Amino acid sequence: EWINVCAHLHGDHCVGNTNNKVENLRLINCDTGEIKRAEEGEEYVALSYVWGQEGTKSKQGSLTYPQTVQDAILATRQLGYSRLWIDQYCLDQNNLPEFQAQLQQMDSIYKQAAVTLVAAAGVNANHGLPGVSTRLRPPTPSVTIDSQTLSPLSSTPNLTSKTSKWMSRAWTFQEGLLSTRRLIFTPTQLYFECRGMYSTE
Q1: How many angstroms separate the CA atoms of 25 and 3, rounded?
Q2: What is the DSSP letter of 151?
Q3: Residue 144 bridge partners (DSSP)
Q4: Within a domain: residue 188?
Q5: Where's the Heterokaryon incompatibility domain (predicted)?
Q6: Going by fewer Cβ within 10 Å, which terminus of the chain is more open, N or C?
Q7: Which of 15, 5, 8 is nearest to 180 (CA)?
């Protein structure tokens, strides 16, 4: 809903310059898990996360991915998209000229994504995206007094993300700055940022 509101109200203000075509862009097919070259004008979601020590991976199609990537694939599909870009998997490091050319176009890759999923929880790729699949959010504490249920105000989510491992890494922080729309997963809640608005659950 947030993405649709942004697209309707903000128009080109929150859309990257599509004239800067990224040559040989590769995307994860969220239905099969396979990585293929993008078709002309194909919409995609990007992921920004801390790699860390990935360790455990789960199978998705013919490839295996850590939990955060698995959750990003699921979240992408839930948002109504079928293609996902992740630097570690979609940059072909075996093709040095292509790899270097795409590094020079990282700004275009993130700006042209429909939205960037930001994993601002956990310290590595095994943590997952809270609230998507296996990683549950902690319950909100509450107390009932005279039939009135009281709960504390949640911490401001952008303050939570500012203390995250994701924010402490220059590389991932830059990815966030380059993105025109960000859907940010913190340990306790989800929030959305674009150039024209800021929304929480």
Answers
A1: 23
A2: -
A3: 149
A4: yes
A5: 44-175
A6: N
A7: 15
What pLDDT was estimated at residue 63? 66
Count CA atoms within 13 Å of residue 54 on its CB side. Answer: 12
Question: Does the reported pTM lie above 0.70?
Answer: yes
pLDDT tens, 15-71? 766 667 888 899 999 999 899 999 988 999 999 988 766 554 554 555 678 899 999
Which three-class secondary structure state does DSSP give residue 190?
A: strand
On whether the CB atoms of residues 47 and 109 are closer than 8 A, the answer is no
The amino acid at residue 84 is L
DSSP for 16-80 reads --TTS--TT-EEEETTT--EEEPPTT---EEEE---S-----EEETTEEE-HHHHHHHHHHHHTT
Q: How far apart are CA 138 and CA 187, in angstroms?
A: 8
Q: Which domain does 191 fall in, by range?
A: 2-137+167-200
Domain-located, residue 81: yes
In a domain, 34, yes or no: yes
The DSSP 8-state label assigned to residue 145 in this structure reads E
Q: How far apart are CA 43 and CA 83, in angstroms?
A: 7
Backbone angles phi and psi of 8, in degrees to 5: -75, -40
User: Is the pLDDT confidence value at 133 over 60?
Assistant: yes
Q: For the ranges 56-60, 77-81, 131-135, which has the lowest average pLDDT?
A: 56-60
Domain count within the chain: 1
